[in-house]
Amino acid sequence: MTARSLTEAAIVNAALEIVRRTGVESLSMRGLSRELGMSAMAAYYYVANKDELLDLVAARALADIPLPEGDGSPWPVQLRALIDHVDKALRDYRGVGEVLLDRMHRTQKHVMRAVMELLSEAGFSDAEVAMAYALIHTYLFGRYRVTAAPLPVGDTGDADPDDIVSRVGPLSARLAGRDYYDFGVDTLIKGLESRLAAAPTNGRRRRG
Amino acid sequence: MTARSLTEAAIVNAALEIVRRTGVESLSMRGLSRELGMSAMAAYYYVANKDELLDLVAARALADIPLPEGDGSPWPVQLRALIDHVDKALRDYRGVGEVLLDRMHRTQKHVMRAVMELLSEAGFSDAEVAMAYALIHTYLFGRYRVTAAPLPVGDTGDADPDDIVSRVGPLSARLAGRDYYDFGVDTLIKGLESRLAAAPTNGRRRRG
DNA sequence: ACCTGAACACCGTTCAAGT
DNA sequence: ACCTGAACACCGTTCAAGT
To answer: Is any atom of strand D within 7 angstroms of residue B116's beta carbon?
Structure first.
């Protein structure tokens, strides 16, 4: 055994574990150190503060996302695949989307770059790329708070067939998270395609 | 003066004030009571716990949203107006979107109903109404975490014209929150329209 | 170099006690 | 009925001290 029994990697791993099991809000500096068998302050030797820890957790969770190959497939297909990979990387980590939302810009540029390149190649102007990226980012990361709160199933069981809310309530119990996700991403991409179709000369293609 | 010098309404108002000024995360039960000139535990007489307080704050912030009149305008226009009103109700309250996201289903049904009715009338099936509502909700409420973290302006000032990320960085400084919002909502609604156009017989109109 | 312990300034919540 | 004070079990962070 060398002198140190802890490493930054071990700390970040343990933190990610805790977030996956119990959610972000129950990750504490003290509890983390205790979980590693150390004194309550041990983690502070490797990490300046909780914010830095959350940055490292965020970076780690998104590190292994496969980027588009640049094969010949149409941009909506490639964009959809990339979004699916981000979603997969986030799905298991309860509350991590919330963390990442604040931190992705600071810590993790390669996914952002891949999305932006796809959009730029598709024909969007630089300003549109900025806005379209923000839209996708917002939907994807906002999702992890919404899916935690499903639509209420009719409170007293009174399904009024003329009331849309009480019709949708029980129905939403049969819809899987997958259904919401597919509908959402498809609609976003359809909306983007519809924009390009309406003003196809907006973008300036690079290496066109 | 009557016996009581505090009311639930006063407490919720003060809480909403604090959230608007300093964000949700700096709202505390103790600090709130102190701000009202009472002892640290005073608020507990009117409110069971912090969760209940957040529910009341959420309900209050969304209470006065004007619902669609049911005039003859096309559904995308009415939907856009309704979304704008929700946005306006949220805009001034830092972090309140985050609170509401968890709580809207529990506390505030009339906005949800208005959105769902518009979508149902437009021709979407009940399942599609559920998913489209979730999409809109996610975007609208997720926004209040994203807009707090603007895209990074080129870190070292090196604007590489061939790199989409460094092109978009400085550009995003000139884009207003309004631009992102308009683009986002327009794209969502375009995506929904595109869905209806692709499968126009999907929905069953009520009172058609 | 790596870790600990005590201390400070906070939290949310409970509950007996005051008026 | 309305509010207070003390207590409990937590936080994040700092910093002198231990090995």
So the answer is: no
Neighboring chain B residues of A129 at a CB cutoff of 8 Å: 164, 168
A184 contacts B138? CB cut-off 8 A: yes
Helix then strand count (H, E) for chain A reads 9, 0
Q: Quote the Cα angle for A165-A171-A176, to 5°.
A: 125
pLDDT tens for each residue of A107-140: 456 677 888 888 998 999 988 888 888 888 788 7
Q: CB of B30 under 7 A from strand C?
A: yes
Q: What is the C-alpha separation between B90 and A34, in angstroms, rounded?
A: 40
Helix, strand, coil shares of chain B as percentages rounded to 5? 65, 0, 35
Q: Which among B91, B90, B102, B24 is positioned nearest to B62, based on CA atoms?
A: B90
Give me the CA B189–C1' D16 separation in Å, rounded: 61
Looking at residue B94, what DSSP letter applies?
T
**Which pair of tokens denotes residue B19?**
């959230």
Other CB atoms closer than 10 Å to residue A94's CB: what's the count?
Answer: 18
- Please provide the DSSP assignment of A124-157 as one string: --HHHHHHHHHHHHHHHHHHHHHTTSPPPP-TTS
Question: Which nucleotides of strand C come closer than 7 angstroms to any CB of the protein?
Answer: 1-6, 10-15
Q: Radius of gyration (Cα) for chain B, nearest Å?
A: 21
User: Closest nucleotide to B39's CA, by C1' atom?
Assistant: D4
Distances (CA, A) of B29 to A147, B46, B61: 28, 11, 19
Question: How many angstroms separate the CA atoms of A12 and A196, rounded?
Answer: 42
Task: Report the phi/psi class of residue B125: left, alpha or beta, with left for phi > 0 and alpha for psi in -120 to 50.
Answer: beta
Partner residue facing B126 (CB), from A171, A179, A183:
A171
Q: Nucleotide D2: nearest residue by CA–C1'?
A: B4
Cβ–Cβ < 8 Å for B126, B120: yes
Q: How far is B175 from chain A (nearest CA, A)?
A: 8
pLDDT, tens digit, 9 for 90 and up, residues B38-82: 999 999 999 999 999 998 998 888 787 788 887 889 999 998 998
Per-residue tokens: A139: 């939907």
Query: Running DSSP on this structure, what letter comes out for residue B197?
Result: H
